[in-house]
Design a protein that fits this description.
heterodimer, A: 2 domains, about 50% helix, disordered N terminus, B: mainly alpha, Cytochrome Bc1 Complex, Chain D, domain 2, globular
Chain lengths: ~210, ~240
Amino acid sequence: MIRPILFILALSSIGTAYAAIPVKGDAKKGAAIAKLVCIACHGADGNGITPPNPDYPKLAGKQPEYLLKQLKDFKAGKRKNDIMAGMVANLSPDDMANLSLHFAAQKSTPGAVKNPELLEFGKKFYTEGNPDQGVPACAGCHLPDGSGTTVYPHIAGQYSSYVYQQLKRFSSGERDNDRGLVMQSLSLRMTDQEMKAVSEYITSLK
Amino acid sequence: MNKAFLISLSLSLAVLSSAHAAPPKQPKAPGIESPDYAWDAQSAEEAQLLKMKGDVENGKIAYQGCQGCHKPDASGLSDGTYPQLAGQHTTVLIKQMSDVREGRRDNPKMFPFAGKHVVDTQEVADIAAYLNSLPLPGNNDKGPGNDLARGKALYQKDCVSCHGERGEGNAGKFYPVTNGQHYRYMVRQIVSIRDGSRRNANPKMVKVVKRYSTSDIGAVADFMSRISPLKKADK
């Protein structure tokens, strides 16, 4: 009885960066589910809805590994969100893989900058971080163009309101499904102004 | 049901019921302040790492989590906030990362991104192999250049026997490559080694730099920052 519990705890806390497992499935089947389940909030192509809602992020062009992890985490309650918990309740593992491949294959639309005066500082923060406070540059993991990797998600063009809201949730601990709690650690070191500016810059990335 | 089971069950329930996970704090292990300190004693993980073969390609991927501070070319930051790491000895990288991971080198800034909760043992070996494979950038921060004769004299008298004519260090003895390191980083480290706040220091070096004024430290670090660049550190 002891071993399974310890084993589960160990599994939930450790991960190897380059061990991202490629997602296998059928994007066409995913597209069919998206039209039934996801369309109202995320749009059929995963570019969200108009006007943008910070609760409904763009999913188009994100890495399938990232999308699948989030769906699994919603289902397992590791990423807590009442709406998404309801949405994923009836999805099978195959459905989630197929949806991830569908949204990953869509083209992300450019974001709309609302506060251009924040872009200069946002760019500086994105590319340099804040060395005094020990905040790494966002560009280190998410790459200078925001395209990300199989470990760190694509964020270019994401709604600034969603990015800002997620940074707030990481810093409060409300969202704690990030690998090694790295996002939580760094967002705790960020000011509100830095979060606003970098969110705006991320929206501007193409 | 035995006692161990009950303890592990209550621990796991405590984990599950806590509202949010919080990032772990850096542990604090005994260092130079403790009586039985041996500066190059190896922890279990460090001994394992020193025997492992790191994979350069995987290290390049794992290093993505480091480059937000240390930069894609691993040249760090010229103001000395982050050191230059490219071409550093694998042994030195492993020792220093282990010391941060296990709390013998206090670094609360770095720990959330380098602790065992986020970087596993194989990744440390891979990151060290990758960094060692990189060419030295050779564009490091230099000092003011106004006291180089004294800096050279101090270096030749006190430092050269360990750190080498050109700051090439010694991989087998865990002495770092200092060639091409940022002046302000070296000043900061020598001061903290002198003053005891770098708790994983070599007592031999502490003894040498105890006698140094801050201007002595500036002079020797300035000289070191200007030694003609090495292209590639020896292995």
